[in-house]
Amino acid sequence: MARELDEKDFAILRKLAPEYSGILCPESGHEFRSILPPVSNHIATDEADFAERVARLSDDEWEYLTDQILSGREDLGCMPEEDIETILAHIEKEVSPDAAERVRRLYRLSECGLL
């Protein structure tokens, strides 16, 4: 489900990518509709850079992003497996193991084209 990012979303995006001031996806020219995929796919230079960026997030921000993912508002379908594993590790630690498992199942279902 596409969404328009609000101020809270942009605050998280600025925390993850302070050097990036735009709201347009560099590859498509469309406005961002999620937070984590553009950071993973277009802004972070590699897996280690992505991991360092998402480590900046607070517990509250992880809870918010987890809620967005589980509600279908934050789409992880186009992200590489290694970045998904990084996200799952943070959700497990900062939110709960149950939430991480729910996100894992959701990602697997979307990966298989079932969602």
Describe the protein:
There is one protein chain. It is built from six helices and no strands. The chain is an all-alpha fold. The protein has one domain (7-111). Helix 3 (47-54) runs parallel beside helix 5 (81-94). It starts with 6 loop residues before the first helix and ends with a helix.
Biggest sheet record: none
In N-to-C order, the SSE pattern is: HHHHHH
| Domain module tally | 1
Percentage beta strand: under 5%
Between the first and last Cα atoms, what is the distance in angstroms? 11 Å
Number of strands: 0
Q: If you average the pLDDT, what whole number results?
A: 86
**Structural class by SSE content:** mainly alpha
The geometry reads as globular
Radius of gyration: 13 Å
How helical, in percent, are the residues? 55-70%
Stretches where pLDDT falls below 50 for ≥5 residues? none
Total of helices: 6
Keywords:
single chain; 58% helix; 6 helices; 115 residues; mainly alpha
Secondary-structure topology with pairs:
Blueprint: H1 7-16, H2 36-43, H3 47-54, H4 59-70, H5 81-94, H6 97-111
Helix pairs in contact: 3-5, 5-6
Short summary:
The protein has helices at residues 7-16, 36-43, 47-54, 59-70, 81-94, 97-111. By secondary structure, it is mostly helical.
